[in-house]
Request: fold
Amino acid sequence: MAADSWEKAADKMENASYYQLVMGGAILLDKARLLAGESTENIAVLHHHELVAVDGLAAALGQALLDSNKSPTSGAKKSNDTEAL
Reply:
């Protein structure tokens, strides 16, 4: 059926505009693929997530954790120290 349409269209190509030729050809090709069970539309989706400066953030957080765990070395008494009366 599509092949017959191609042949009939070929006879009338001289009177058709470029737009009509392209649209007609595209529609016939689409319908031929549909009848053959092939895809008529191809869609690709790409998701890309990029982590920027994660190393610097990890280093800063690590240093902050180390700084928060340091015990003061001067000016503070330990909890087990006792004062002489």
Summary: The CA atoms of residues 62 and 68 lie 10 Å apart.
